[in-house]
């Protein structure tokens, strides 16, 4: 008689977090698009770099509500319950895990010295620094650099495109939003698949700890942002200036300007008064004015 062996029942694994995240993001984007018509734009001339301002302000309003309800209280509790030494160790660990993105993009940008420096830094902090909890590399003169694929595309000459406010992620633009994809795939392959054996719980735990750690570092700026007249415009200006500094050394080349960016051209409008001179600087000399023509001479008396 042949014996049949019953195959062990197959257990269905839950859907991968990435698929759940995509579905949730798609649902939220649909909601944002539906609510974008309700956003109000302050009066004044619109910024030509922000062509989706109505949609962006809607996303910003929802991000702010989520931040005030969840992320900001979590960050405040994290700061209150942990010592500075513990927070420094956690920040070192998260930063060390993100180092492969910086290293790869340094080499893609042609910054070979920075790439070699950050590679040595990763090795030193992972070994001597016990998995990155400590930072002995800085004491050895190996300074940390930050690079991402959006910055790499900008150095390669790709235009930034319009400003974007991304759900949960905050300020970006079209180029930098696209650059998030290869950076995420690189970290997912190195950390989640190779380092942590595709453990979903570790992946989500690292994501949560990293989000709270980054938010805790921005708590000191809350008062400035909350007290500003237009917090959205403050964040937009800060983001665009920082990206211009990282990519162009603080100088925005003409090809990065939008065609209708008259407000950034620096030329005064016709009939506008000249800008006042800086302290200690001589005022600009006025253009020479031709004297009025002399009246015609009177005819000699007869």
Number of helices: 11
What is the helix fraction of residues, given as a range? 40-55%
Q: Structural class of the helix and strand makeup?
A: mainly alpha
State which percent range the strand residues make up. under 5%
Cα separation of the termini? 153 Å
Summed over residues and divided by their number, the pLDDT gives a mean of 78
Radius of gyration: 28 Å
> What series of H and E elements makes up the topology?
HHHHHHHEEHHHH
State the strand order across the main sheet: 1-2
Please state the overall shape, judged from the principal axes of the Cα atoms. Answer: globular
User: Which oligomeric form is depicted?
Assistant: single chain
What's the count of strands? 2
Largest sheet: 2 strands, antiparallel
Low-confidence stretches: 7-37, 258-302
List keywords for this structure.
302 residues, mainly alpha, 2 strands, 3% strand, disordered C terminus, globular, two-stranded antiparallel sheet
């Amino acid at each position: 008689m042949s014996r049949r062996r019953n195959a062990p029942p197959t257990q269905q694994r839950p859907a991968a977090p990435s698929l759940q995240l995509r579905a949730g993001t798609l649902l939220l984007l649909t909601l944002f698009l539906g609510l974008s018509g309700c956003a109000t734009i302050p009066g004044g001339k619109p910024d030509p770099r922000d062509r989706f301002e109505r949609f962006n302000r809607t996303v910003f309003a929802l991000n702010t509500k989520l931040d005030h309800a969840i992320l900001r209280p979590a960050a405040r509790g994290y700061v209150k319950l942990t010592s500075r030494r513990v927070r420094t160790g956690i920040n070192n660990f998260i930063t060390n895990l993100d180092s492969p993105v910086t290293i790869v993009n340094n080499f893609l940008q042609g910054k070979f010295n920075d790439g070699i420096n950050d590679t040595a830094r990763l090795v030193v902090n992972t070994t001597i620094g016990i998995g990155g909890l400590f930072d002995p590399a800085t004491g050895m003169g190996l300074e940390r650099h930050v690079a991402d694929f959006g910055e790499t595309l900008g150095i390669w000459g790709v235009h930034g495109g319009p400003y974007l406010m991304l759900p949960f992620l905050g300020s970006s633009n079209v180029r930098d939003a696209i650059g998030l994809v290869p950076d995420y795939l690189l970290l997912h392959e190195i950390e989640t698949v190779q380092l942590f054996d595709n453990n979903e719980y570790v992946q989500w735990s690292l994501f949560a700890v990293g989000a709270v750690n980054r938010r805790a570092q921005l708590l000191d700026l809350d008062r400035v942002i909350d007290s500003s007249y237009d917090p959205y415009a403050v964040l937009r200006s800060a983001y665009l200036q920082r990206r211009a500094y990282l990519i162009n050394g603080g100088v925005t080349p003409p090809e990065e300007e939008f065609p209708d960016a008259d407000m950034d051209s620096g030329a005064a409008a016709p009939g506008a008064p000249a800008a006042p001179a800086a302290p200690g600087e001589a005022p600009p000399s006025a253009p020479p004015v031709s004297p009025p023509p002399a009246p015609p001479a009177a005819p000699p008396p007869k």
